[in-house]
Amino acid sequence: MSKFIELNLDLANFITKLEGITKQNNEKIEELLGLDDKTYANFVKPLEMMDEYLGHFFTPLSHINSVCNTKETQEVYSNSLPIITEYSTKISQNIEIYKAYKTIQERQNKSLNYEQKRVLELNILNFELSGAHLDDATKERLQEINLRESELSNDFSQNVLDATNAYEYIITDEKDIDGIPKSDLESAKFEDDGVIKYKFTLQMPSYIAYMTYGKNREIREALYKAYTTRAPQNAKIIDEILLLKNEMSNLLGFGDYAEYSLKSKMAKTKEDVIDFLETLVTKSKAQAVKELDEVAKLSDRPLESFDSAFYSEILKKEKYEFDEELFRPYFEQKSVVVGMFNFLDKLFGIKFEKVNELLWDEKATAYNLYLKNELRAKLYLDLESRKGKKGGAWMHNIQTHCTNESGEEQLASAYIVCNFPPSSKENPSLLRHDDVVTLFHEMGHTIHHLLSRVNESGVSGVNGVEWDAVEFPSQFLENFAYEPSVLKLFAMHYESKEIIPDEMIEKLVRSKNFLSASSMLRQLEFSIFDFKLHSKLYQGDEIQELLNSIREETSIIKAPSYNKFQNGFSHIFAGGYAAGYYSYKWAEVLSADAFFSVVDEGIFNSTTAKKYLEFILNCGGAKSMGELFVDMMGRKPNPDSLLRLNGINL
Fold first, then answer.
1. pLDDT tens digits for 622-644?
2. N or C: which end of the chain has fewer CB within 10 A?
3. Is 522 exposed, middle or buried (0-12, 13-18, 19+ CB in 10 A)?
4. CB–CB of 190/197 below 8 Å?
5. What does the buried/exposed string (b/e) look like for 234-246 if buried means 16 or more CB atoms within 10 Å of the residue's CB?
6. Which domains does the chain show, CATH number per domain?
7. 3-state SS class at 281
8. Are 222 and 403 in contact (CB under 8 A)?
9. Which residues are marked as active site?
């Protein structure tokens, strides 16, 4: 019998099967609640595994809807959301389950291990945050809110995807593609009635290519305007989502959604978060102003938002003799993947073995992971962009390492999805260095999940990790994509097989923090907007006014009035980051601190790297990340490490 679940998806019968599973689960819950002597083993464990097994069934649908989106997957996915939401909300508000957890916590506290105690602690908190202790009318309203929110989030995401897929800018004049890299032109090129034309879209590889290298300012603005005005119908969805989140928070006894959100995070107060973010703005702004002044000098007119990437690339070439395109032949996708695997083997002793199996796309691949010759997990990669695939990059866990009700070990599995330039028979997929960083980032999330040794699924891998700490492992790993000794493991010219020269690595490292303060301000803008947006109720024009007021402090270049960035801000309206986008920077303090410790010790001889495997990767969410960090480092994190990492003067 396979240690990993089958990924076959029966769309025609999915809803019927899902209804059957939830019905069976509800019956099992009633049976468990009928037990006279409830214990962790006979009550908590079966409930945990029930949730795990439901994920095994549902995750492949969610995945396919994201990577092979069709009307059929949309319909099945949309129809499944009310079933899943109603089921999970009903469980999260079941007062009898809540009481049973509280009783087991009191009676068995001394006999439970720290993993089991953490499961109970987090479940009890989740029940209280779901309103399990409230009256029936309130719980019914909370269930309605959850159901409507899940529908709205799905609609928001689908609107962005549809708008992204729908837009095309066709170029027929050769002078308008002057300066565009050859590999990007090959992707854009097509023939229509015997005429060679070039199609640029809002898909990331295509969009970035023209915004960075396209000399025609009018085309850059057209693409930028299309991108920043996507899905205008999402404005109404945002209003309703914010109303629902505010109402839910009030029903649960919180003043606003930000207060509610912080109950399950490392940060404890709203003031802590805002002070953290605004301090970073203060420390970054002067350097950001200088950076963009340099860029602006290259333009013969005032710099606009749709100019910055183009002139920044020119400055980067001038200042560092850095040409992104000269690096891409050294970052052929398959070579990068193999090299990254080699790096992880040297750092942690992980070995990857390719598995031949039929997957959802011919370019998707599967690997078994071994640690000390022991099979530990399975990884699926889907790295190239294509139509019908949601933009961006992410990791999604399928199975979680744990022991089941019978004490048998279940291994972990996960997907990594990216949107790198597509390969063809004629052309390989050549990555920008930013793409390499993205791949390392997602692999950081993935090994955090796959290498867990925790036996309780609810706190194993990425499960149970505080939201503002979950980016720590991903950011930690991505930093190594700039290290010379790591780059030499995979940066090889795809034609000549030459290892990347030292002088090119020096240019890459020197350019790493190019415009870093400006980039810091942009992320802080998103973070402050998100957190303040959820700190009181905003509606309609108030949302844009809030964003504009924040931009007064964080934007060196004033955004055009048509820029409705919020309508495409999927992270907070469709991705779970509401009142939590600050987590990227909060976690980056942890990652920068741990990273410098490894580098300063010598990457492949680092004791911190061994401790990182032991305390961070192996321990998942079984303890607070703040506690695990101190276990690893012997001290609390140093915030100045974040500024050091970004080359911002202290």
1. 999 999 999 999 999 888 899 99
2. N
3. middle
4. yes
5. beebbbebbebbb
6. 11-92+94-133 (1.20.1050.40), 167-228 (no CATH), 329-515+584-645 (1.10.1370.40)
7. helix
8. no
9. 442
